Amino acid sequence: MKNLTLFTGCLLFCFLVFCGCTFGEKKENALTHAILINKITIGVKCDSKPFGFIDNQGNIQGFDVDIAKNITNLILGDENSLELVCVSAQSRIADLNSKKVDLLVAAMSITDNRANVVRFSTPYYIAGQAIMTKNNSKIAALSDLNKANVGFILGTTSERTIRNLAPAANLRASKTYFEIFELLKDDEIDAILADDSILYGILMDNNGYKILPKRYTREYYAVATRQNKESNELFEEVNNAINIMQQRGIINEIKAKWIPNLHS
Ligand code: GLU
After folding, report:
1. How does pLDDT run across 145-169, given as a tens digit for each residue?
2. Which residues line ligand 1 (CB under 6 A)?
3. Upstream peptide bond of 167 is cis (omega within 30 degrees of 0)
4. What architecture (CATH level 2) is domain 129-217?
5. Of the candidates 56, 73, 105, 133, which lies 20 to 30 Å from 81 by C-alpha distance?
6. Rounded to whole angstroms, how far apart are CA atoms 18 and 13?
């Protein structure tokens, strides 16, 4: 009798461990979890028109938002299953790895350092860093930035570029594109070094500024997922979605919608 009770106890224990593991795994698998709750939470920029910004109605819009909607639609069958969260250039990697968001579609360039802490999809867009000044500025090339006051956004790839290519520039860090543009407008800085794609968004809404023709880098924008193995399937699905969007011409349509004149 004692042995039977022990045996039943062991069986029960094994059953509970098995269930626990199975349910535990299911809960942690990012794709299974998204399907179960019918929701994907995606981090986008909200200060980076036309990639991610808040429109006059208070809705988050832009190139990256359309990419995020299409990814959600291709994975869950409905773009309304997307929940958008604003992330900043400084916070986005922490927001992803702390599970505040499932994915980042945040004008984010692939770099070796970042690839140590997140997993990047196939790129969906190529930008290039450029200089923006006032129309009447004497700055015409990167070398003119030495000794000038130059703005960059903290946590972006332009910080390294400016430090490498114009080491004698007086640097001014800002947290958002709103902030950096105010500095340029008020002549507190002479130029901004940033992705042409986002500088272009500032030009859309403001007269009296220009983007110089030269590009100093190639920025491959990609979707970021977590590196843990629970995110493997979600990562595969994101790559599939990007490939489908490329094949169906959806990415080109999104480009034509948001940045019609940048690549003409
Ligand atoms: N593409 C640049 C980067 O990944 C700029 C992105 C941004 O301004 O958020 O650093």
Report:
1. 999 999 999 999 999 999 999 999 9
2. 45, 48, 89, 107-109, 153, 156-157, 195, 198, 219
3. no
4. 3-Layer(aba) Sandwich (3.40)
5. 56
6. 9
